[in-house]
Amino acid sequence: MTTMKPNVSWLTDVSVFAVNRLPAHSDHRYYETLEEAEKEAPMALRHSLNGSWKFAYSVKPADRPALFHEADYDCNGWSSIEVPGHIQLQGFGKPQYVNTMYPWDGHNEIRPPAIPEDHNPVGSYVKYFSVPGNMQGKPVYLSFQGVESAFYLWLNGQFVGYSEDSFTPSAFDLTPFLVEGENKLAVEVYQRSTGSWLEDQDFWRFSGIFRDVYLYTVPSVHVSDLFVHAELDQAYKNGQLRVDLKLAGEQPSSVTMTLKDADGQVVATGKAESFEDGKTVVSMDAGHVTPWSAEKPYLYMLYISVFDSEGNLVEAVPQRVGFRNFEMIDKVMHLNGKRIVFKGVNRHEFNSRRGRSITKEDMLWDIATLKRNNLNAVRTSHYPNQSLWYELCDIYGVYVIDEMNLETHGSWQKMGAVEPSWNIPENKPEWQPIVMDRAISMVERDKNHPSILIWSVGNEAYAGEVLLNVSHYFRETDPSRLVHYEGVFHNRTYDATSDMESRMYAKPADIEEYLNADPQKPYISCEYMHAMGNSVGGMHKYTELEQKYPMYQGGFIWDYIDQVIVKKDRYGKEFLAFGGDFDDRATDYNFCTNGIVFADRKESPKMQEVKFLYQNIKLIPDRSGVKIINENLFEGTDAYDLVIALHLEGKEVFRSSQSIAVDAQSEAYVELKLPITDEPGEYVIHASLHLKEGTLWANAGHETSFGQYVFVTESNHVEVQQEGSLRVVQGDVNIGVHGRDFSIMFSKQAGTLISVNYAGREMIAIPPAPLFWRATTDNDKGFALGFDSGAWFAASLTRKCTSVQLVEEAGNATVTFDYRLSISADVQVSVAYTVKPDGSLNVKSRYAGVEGLPKLPIFALSFKVPADYCHLDWYAMGPEENYIDRAFGARLGEFQNDAADNVSGYVVPQESGNRTGVRRVSVSNDYGQGIRITAPANQPVECNISPYTAFELESAYHHYELPNVHYTVITVAGRQMGVGGDDSWGAPVHDEYLIPANQELTFEFNIQRL
């Protein structure tokens, strides 16, 4: 242990990042008896210091209580704070969200390693404790699992140590400083340090002790570190286990090892009786083993028993073991001999109330959500996660890119432009130790998790010798894994840093260009499908590459969960706050809202598409059977039932279930025996796979795969003219069309339909009007849709009716309105309403294409009904919202919701709730009264039924800014443009999902009473 006097200058000294910190080691558990180890009980040799601590907050170092660590310093009058937790989420200071720029940008003109002196919040923590009885007379250590970003540590007034690196453990030996009875632990946490220059990730800037803190002791002989090498032979059938052990304490007499399978049967045993410098290696032949994969995460349990010099058992270590080989074969990444495709997501640790101080319950929900939705991989963006997460990935079966805590984005990229004039760490040798320390801390802790296939050098730190050396360290220390780094894309001099070509937000065409140019490395998108707000359109263009190019090996969606924080508005009501809502400046506002999961841990509608496009087993039904393509690498279909459901006009008329046997990497055609489908109408065959038995992550019956086939049996029936008569009244201002118990009114003055009254119930609250604008999505704003197509906004608000025509024929009455728009004198829009004797209306809308105008966001007709009519019964594509470029995961069927449900939880209000393929939707009140909108199956429409207009949504920055609900807004569209998702800062929606202004557009639908 080094005796040093602490100095605040360490905060800006790149060479000082760990003082008296114990070496990093594996995250194994250990016990004093084998019985405890077998139960995996809470460790008796650990004692948690989580809970309430005394706390003082200072805005800058000069204001801190500098002597608070002294034994006789009275802290009783201080506030309290919960550990683990962030300082800024417990009433001290304020959180700040920035993406690429450093948080002090515009406030302090500094360069690394300098840090702001006027604003560097300091948290002074004090915890009083007594040494637990089972630790008396033994060495006592203290472990911080995560402290942001630098801290000094004292015990009973004596300086213990110092550490940086917010996301890996820091442990210290307290033994020399302990006293009998009560001990005073003092921790001084700084938000800014040299490490802050290396922690410029796209996240909220917090500080504090945000992960667990605990005391621990060790037996007289202790496994201080172990490295399990569990590999397969060349046939991927037999396992070889090698365990590297480091022991501390007294000289042991022996160490024995027993490997057991999942049923508790002994597979192999080993023993070590000679030790050199406390080290030994034990090898065992495990014979035929079950390999580990995400499809079948089979784990063995290794029990390590340590005996002291007298032959007494003093320590028992349980260690999960997964046998698997991950390797590059012919320029393609393989797991256990099979080409792997990552169907992944980037995941920040986040909880909307606790920030990055997430709970076990959060992690259990997350891991099950990944599995239920066919995600097989996660990238720990951009820092090592809590140890429990890797354990869950081992157990549940999720592949991991483990990323070291490094991002220096603001040092080389400014507002999107690459400008590395003062990039760190680049080729600066003085930064090598502090960067390498982060790599070592990650590898040493996480090396025994079979779920980790790839070590990542970090994120968005440009390139240079420092990072290249880190990649060499990874390979030399652990040849069983590959190394990832995207940043070399910007500087190919250091291309050797990464074993794979990794890019962010490359367009599908760019990816194909790479794959068609004799590439030397396999390709992954470490970030793609920027899921900000209403997004993930066009994802199929990426997943379609999986089977087209062997060297395309998948990608990781950005990202998993919205990083937003629960806050109260001025009226005391909670809302979800993003950057800027805490008066934090600089800020990047709502750029933190990119999750396929909402901040309250509810799946967003985007997940419907992700689940479908990530499914490993594809189902392609037709009228005779189902083609089953099993793209699993190892597992067949034995775990599933194939369920077939036949629907006629949305109603189920047949269902069957059967077991199927389709091996991995094969396909089969299963013939179906369906009932005769000669009754006229639209049929849908739904084919789906469901779990036969429950798993850790889903109950029995959970659907994992889905496919559908739609066909129509035509009718020979000749439509009979409706009986009944209409009374048409041509007034000076209005045209009235009246039947036995209904009244339809059109206004020549207003230039539209103004009344649909069924049996005394008025359905039109605000008349219909052509609509060419949608509430802009985050992606729309990113590629400047408002700038390019904003004229359609004005065109939707104002129009001039140029003619009204009434035609009476064959018992029907048709009123046609022609419109001119301010956007161009050449634009012609017409809406024709045909009233039939039963009171139903046929509505036809037409837009004549015009050259030289910007693309249309939507072509629709929108009107309002009273808010009481809010219950919706759909026969359309669903059940979740969908768009023309995000409808692969939707299915045609009947489903129900309310208008309010269609305002999705995107943090900034925007277009949401749309349904494509709408054949019918009923809009009713609590008594079942209302209207039904229908369209023919061969010309379905899109519908968005919401409490708000596009303009109300457009004008609101937060949901609490939306007005009180007075109407249900019904928008029927012939076509709405896609939502896109390649990125959120300039990538347009793909051409085939746009609406050019120079094409003619028409659609029609019917309105009838319920």
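That was protein one. Protein two is written in the same sequence-then-structure order:
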Amino acid sequence: MTSFEGRLLGRAAELAELSRLAESTLAGEGQAGFVVGEVGLGKTAVLEQAAADARRMGIRVLYGRAQSLAQPCPFTFISSCLGIEESPSDDRRAQAAEVLRGDARYGLPGARSEATGAYAATIEAMVGLVEDLCAQGPLALFLDDLQWADSASVAVLHKLVRSVHQLPLLVVGAHRPVPAAGDVDRLSRKRISGNHTLLELAPLDAQAVAALLTELCGREAGPRLRRMAEGAAGNPLYITELIAALRREHAIETGDSMADIAAGSSLPPLTALVTHRLRYLRDDVLQMLRIVSVLGTSCTTAELAAVADIPIRDLLTIMAEAQASGVLTDSGPFLGFRHELIRHALHDAVPGPLRAMLHTRAAQCLAESGAAPERVAEHLLNGAPSPDFLITWLEGAAARLTTRAPAMALRLITTALELGDPTDAGYGTLQLHHAVAQLSAGHLAEAEESARSALAKAPEPGLECLLRWIVIQAAFARGRPDLALAEARAGGRSPDMPAIERVRLQAFSAVCLFALGDLTEAGAVASRARCRADAAGDGSALASALHVLAAKRFLETPDAEAVELARQASRLTPDTMHPAQWLGLQLSLGNCYIDLDLGHDARQTLAAVRRPAERTGGVFLPWYHLSCALLAFHSGRWDDALAEVAAGLDYGGQVASMSRALRAVSAVIAVHRGRRLDAEAQLKAALPEIDNVTVAAFYEYLPLCAGALLDEAQGDAERAYFRLAEAFDKGVGHLPGQLILGFLTPDLVRLALARGHHENARRYTAAAQQRAEHSGGLYHLGDAYRCQGLLNEDPDLLMEAVRCYRNAPRPLKAAHTCTDAAEILARRGRPDEARLLLDQALDTYTQLGAVWDVTQATSRLRAVAVRRGSHRARTGVRDGWQALTHTERLVAEHVAEGCSNPEIAARLSIARSTVSTHVSSILRKLAMTSRVEIAAEVTRRQNSGQSPT
């Protein structure tokens, strides 16, 4: 697209629309826009003009252009656009860069999907950085050539587009409608919200073409020139390059009022026209441009000088001529072509072997300069490096490359193994790196097989232990603790295994036994490992042993000793173990606190793991959100629980096990709130149960409970009862049902009594009493009292249960028990007392929004001639300030102070993604469109003497 006097011909409507989006962003309501069009229609020119206009408005602009690379590194495009590697002194960018490098994730089993696993942590860091930048003022991201962006960067873009409505953020992307654009094309055409605009560039109309020809020729175009231009089909690049080429060939005849060409002239193809200007360059300039086309636009002048082995002063002279000819543009420290068609033409003119040689030379130069491993890897993957160079470089860079880009590392290490000599001293180390890369890339079965194969060939001293651990980790992560146990035991018997590693293997054997459901043997092995780890002073082994002992004790006798064992494990610092192991211990401890209603301890523990979980990703991020959701649900903060569920699904939706549990929590709330169709949808969307014996096994009870609750809400209480009774007797997965489903005993007693199964009801009551005796926890005591009260129809015992539940607090359980007591009192001829308890229950249900429970309670009491008192339970407010939860009001106050979502997260000790969910909820409930409006409403309330909270 050609610009004249600061305007683009034929694109006034598109620029006006982008200007409108920028003005909206400046006012606080973010927008997303996509410019889509074929080659040459002016996408880049529109973006550049819109970016210049946004800058003039006072919006901070960040601009990025994706490259056409065969082997793009994850997050390369978005990290370059955000300047993450270019501003090491900026704390926010430095933190994002640390997560991007992923040092804490080395050796962790990965996920094949780029949107989950380890990449989730980097996506979170990128989005958090953008939100922090937005807190400084309106921000615009202009992203060109998105069809070539790496998929991890596109995943970040998806999240940013979904959140523009709550930020002063303008996201404008441009791409071609080509198959390679896949995910980007779907994003640009999917209306996620009203803050989304699609601009499809059409060819210039006849009037615009005539105006463009006049501007280019300096006078009106003649009939022959106009007919030739018609062949360009309204493509402004085609027309511009046509006129430029005709001028260089002196083929335009200029009269007083008209410019035309000689008869018989034909229209060359667009590519020929674009590259026509290359004919007029000197050979040394052309040769250097061919090198640039191969190395890519991320190449700097200094790097080009090193690859071409030419002094920088001479190179600058050559590049100045290329820029003056219109082939290169001024792109700061990098080398950019005027149009990608020129780069492709130059690139295709370089023979394949020469391209490979240039990439290899570039890799060597970058390696010598200490460049990041991923930049070296991009060239090595396109080059033909010598085995010596490749293997030597991988010896020092494989670990860092694996944490940053495991798939790239895996391809390079595979090549090195094919080129290397198995008898060389360092070959075994390469095999180790290969297995680690497979593990990190989520190829778990392949990693296990590679490590076993290396073990079978008598590995070098020191490698056996590491290879065995890869086998163990891969087998355990893919749901085969039996194989992991066998390998751990084999390693313990190996004469070459260091003594400290034998202790660690024994401790992990206990973990495997626990995962297999052999609690007795797991406890015995863990006890022996604990003693040996104590004696050796090894924190990692001690943590594993204590974890097993705590989990076993908690299942069997959830008492103070179980909590103390978990605390001892959690006191071991990350310095003594892998950060992921520490995270698992802390989250397990937090869930112990939740189950024992130690809310303060639970909140402190979860607050401590928030940032590490966000930085590590994997299963830990959705696990953290699930833990927060359970804490909020049990304490009656259901909207907060749903916010945590939404955040957990956002980053853990493809972590199948966690997705099931998160959706089950949402389904339970939906049933209680009378939204059975929503509950059905959540349970249907939950991925099928898988043979998973790791963390998720402890949460398989959630889908079971949600399904049974839905059965009862749909009128099939018998099916609900038999489902729960079977699980209680036979277990859930490998876990004993009586141990993991103890919280269901009151419901089992209630359902059993309704069917005349008194013996079963007594059995469930005994189980509840046994658990309460061990733990002394308030809600455990409440369950025991409620079971006994239901069994004996004793309202006094039920009211004792209510007291326990309220002190826990477990408001839903308290309300259910009030309903039970009210029904029994009514049958005993005490309707006034019954009515009082019914009103208390209805108050709680109303506060929770539990519409179904209101209906159930009123129906049960109506059957015994008791109706609600003068107090009329109201449906919860859904809109306006009164509809905001306490947490949402706190978030609103911080928004009014100008805090970013990450800053609010730090203040409230919740996740950034949870804050984002709350902000979206606030905007929806208040019918607002920006944070500015939220701030204005908070200020208005403060000025009128109303406390926002």
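The CA atoms of residues 526 and 545 lie 5 Å apart. Keep this in mind for the problem set.
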